[in-house]
Structure formats: C-alpha cells, structure tokens
C-alpha cells in the first residue's frame, strides 16, 4: 500500500528545516576555522602524504556536540610519554559549508578526512577522522548536516602556512633551524655517546686535553644526533672542519670529543616537541645510573651472583 499522499515532504518544509538548522548552529555554535589539506605526493596504497601542506583557512560556525568535556581516552602515559587523545564531535550545516568553502574552493565539495579544524576557544588543532552525512536520517527527506568526528592533531612535518599567526605557530614552534656536522666514526676521547642538550665547542687547532671550554672559538647546542651526523642549534662563532682530519668538537658536559669531518651550514628544519624542550629527557640519566649500579657483563644482571 502506498504512503498517505497528504503527508508528503515538500520544498517549503525542507527549506524551513534547513533555515532552522543554520540559525540554531549560528546561535549555539562557535566559529571554527576549516583548514583543507593539500596533498603533494600522496601514497595511494596507504592513503597518506608525508609532505602535505595547509595553506588556507575558512571561518565557519560549527556546533559542539560534546557539551561536558572532550571525548577520547584523555591523557595516557605510555613509553613515549604523555599521549593526549582528546576528541570532539562537531556539527556543520551543509548549506553553510557550501557557501563558505565549496564556493570558494570548488574542489572541496564536502568535509574531508585528514583536513583540520582550528578550535579558537582552546587554541587547538583537530584532525577530521570521520565524516557522517546521514545523521539525522532524512528529516523531511533532506540531509542538512555533516557530523565531524575529530581528534587532536599530531604534527608530523607538514607545512602550515595559512597566514593566520596563531595557527602557523603550530609549525613554527616545532622546528629548529640548525646546521649539521658530520663526525668521525669514533670518538677521539671520552664516551661514544653525545647527549641532547649538551654544548659542543671547538678550540681552533687544538684537540685532546688542551681543548677546554674557556678557550672555545665556536659553540652550539646539540638538538639531535643520528649515526655520525649531529644537528646543532644556537651556533656562535665559526666551526672549522678538518680534512685531515685535524679539527675536532668537544662536548662540554660529557667531555666526548670527535673529529669534525664536514659542516653543512644550510639551515635544516627538524621537528621537535615544543612542550618537551631540549635536554629534559631522562633516558641518558637512567642509563648512566644503571651502569654504575648493575653489572651488565653478566647474562642476568638481576641474579644473586651480581653484587
């Protein structure tokens, strides 16, 4: 049997509902900034792009469905430190999305997973994980909203240059401009490990015990090291490389000394955690304390044979 012909959806009711949705979100929502992701070299297998960019922001109002607090598992302490997994669910009008974003950027017809939402209320960036376009389900025969499930954005080498200072700071605060050193395969003296946050210095033409910090002609702070490549920031003076090699650099705290094979003075951008700082990690301290307490020459340093 067919449905009642006197209770059919018609355009007038659909337009009224859409107007009410827009008005409600404008009254009860908050202004957000929608930031589309630009893919430069997308991997079609894994669906990701390690060098994607964010270069434009569109202001649009959204309704926050989480009325008490952020969702997700909150703050979790794991082996990498504190992992913040805040989530938020946002509601945006399809009509308003078309007006503010699609008409200005025709390639973006709907919200997309991977794009960002800037939340000015607490100055956070959220990444869209999922877009639901069928809730509520065909009220008056029409779909009026997008429901965006978002999670706190984890920065990973993306370029963020929207022209909005408080958003662009996300990238600026997570990069160091550095120079890189190529060092000898082994140390001239001292331990084999350079430590982040330690100051390295050079006394031009002098190596070994005669190379002391009070005579330094150049110095800088270790930000990162991998293999025989070390990244240095805050450089003062000029480091000289030794082809023989005859020039070296020495760590102020640990006393470790390496020959300096080459210097690349081209600025290198290295991603960092702005909240962690440099030299605050304690893994090197734990390793040093363990070496002086436990006998690691035995197969089982926790056995009763080790004292």
Describe this structure in words.
- By secondary structure, this protein is α+β, with helices and mostly antiparallel strands.
- Helix content is 15%, strand content 34%.
- The chain has 4 helices and 16 strands.
- It has helices at residues 11-28, 94-102, 165-172, 283-293, and strands spanning 30-35, 53-54, 58-64, 75-78, 81-84, 87-93, 116-119, 124-132, 145-152, 159-160, 175-183, 199-202, 218-226, 229-237, 248-251, 257-271.
- The strands form 4 sheets. The protein has a 6-stranded antiparallel barrel. A 6-stranded antiparallel beta barrel has the order 11-14-13-12-15-16. Strands 2-10 form a two-stranded parallel ribbon.
- A hairpin with a 4-residue loop joins strand 7 (116-119) and strand 8 (124-132).
- The longest helix has 18 residues, at 11-28.
Strand content: 25-35%
Mean pLDDT over the residues: 80
Could you spell the SSE succession in H and E letters?
A: HEEEEEEHEEEEHEEEEEEH
Q: Report the strand count.
A: 16
Principal-axes geometry comes out as elongated
Descriptive tags:
single chain; 307 residues; alpha+beta; 4 helices; 15% helix
What are the SSEs and their pairings?
Blueprint: H1 11-28, E1 30-35, E2 53-54, E3 58-64, E4 75-78, E5 81-84, E6 87-93, H2 94-102, E7 116-119, E8 124-132, E9 145-152, E10 159-160, H3 165-172, E11 175-183, E12 199-202, E13 218-226, E14 229-237, E15 248-251, E16 257-271, H4 283-293
């Amino acid at each position: 049997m067919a449905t009642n012909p006197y209770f059919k959806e018609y355009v007038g009711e659909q337009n009224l509902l859409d107007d009410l949705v827009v008005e409600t979100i404008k009254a009860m929502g908050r202004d957000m900034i929608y930031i589309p992701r630009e893919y430069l070299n997308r991997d079609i297998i894994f669906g990701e792009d390690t060098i994607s960019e964010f270069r434009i922001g569109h202001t649009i109002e959204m309704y926050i469905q989480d009325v008490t607090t952020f969702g997700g598992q909150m703050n979790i302490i794991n082996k990498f430190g504190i992992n913040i997994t805040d989530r938020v669910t946002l509601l945006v009008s399809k009509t308003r999305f078309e007006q503010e974003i699609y008409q200005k950027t025709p390639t973006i017809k709907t919200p997309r997973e991977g794009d960002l939402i800037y939340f000015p209320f607490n100055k956070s960036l959220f990444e869209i994980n999922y877009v639901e376009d069928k809730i509520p389900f065909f009220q008056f025969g029409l779909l009026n909203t997008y429901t965006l499930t978002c999670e706190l954005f984890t920065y990973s080498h993306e370029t963020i240059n929207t022209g909005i200072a408080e958003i662009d700071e996300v990238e600026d605060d997570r990069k160091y401009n550095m120079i890189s050193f190529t060092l000898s395969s082994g140390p001239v003296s001292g331990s084999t490990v350079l430590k982040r946050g330690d100051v390295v210095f050079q006394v031009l033409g002098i190596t070994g015990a005669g190379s002391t910090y009070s005579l330094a002609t150049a110095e800088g702070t270790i930000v990162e090291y991998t293999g025989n490549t070390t990244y240095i920031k805050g450089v003062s003076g000029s480091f000289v490389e030794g082809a023989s090699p005859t020039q070296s650099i020495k760590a102020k705290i640990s006393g470790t000394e390496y020959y300096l094979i080459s210097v690349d003075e081209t600025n290198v951008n290295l991603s960092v955690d702005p909240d962690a700082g440099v030299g605050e990690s304690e893994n090197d301290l734990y390793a040093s304390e363990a070496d002086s307490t436990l006998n690691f020459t035995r197969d089982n340093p926790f056995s009763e044979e080790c004292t």
